[in-house]
Design a protein that fits this description.
By secondary structure, this protein is an alpha+beta fold. It is built from five helices and four strands, in the order αβαβαβαβα. Helix 1 runs antiparallel to helix 5.
């Protein structure tokens, strides 16, 4: 897994409006079935972790726990982001391929 490649792809997806950030927006996209890949910060609180994990499992969205909130926040240029949802299929495929390397 190439962390730098994944984080730079997250930044590109954000600029191209291919992802949403923040817990509430992520949960909304998971419920709509448009979250093809979910990133949850490894240092997220227990309530956030439970809510996002449960929704992801129920709606069959793959969830990634390999990054901290600082790494996710820095990748997209926003402060204090604990959850991201990839809403573009092509970016999700790029990220899945990078995760499987």
């Amino acid at each position: 897994m190439n962390k730098e490649r994944i984080l730079s792809t997250l930044g590109l997806a954000y600029v191209a409006s291919g992802l949403v950030s923040g817990e509430e927006f992520t949960l909304k996209e998971i419920k709509r079935g448009r979250a093809y890949l979910v990133f949850l910060a490894s240092d997220a609180g227990p309530n956030t972790t439970k809510r996002v994990s449960d929704k992801s499992l129920f709606y069959h969205s793959r969830i990634i726990h390999d990054f901290t909130s600082l790494e996710l926040s820095k990748a997209i240029g926003k402060d204090n982001r604990k959850a991201l949802a990839i809403t573009n299929q092509k970016f999700a495929k790029l990220l899945r391929d990078a995760l499987n390397e």
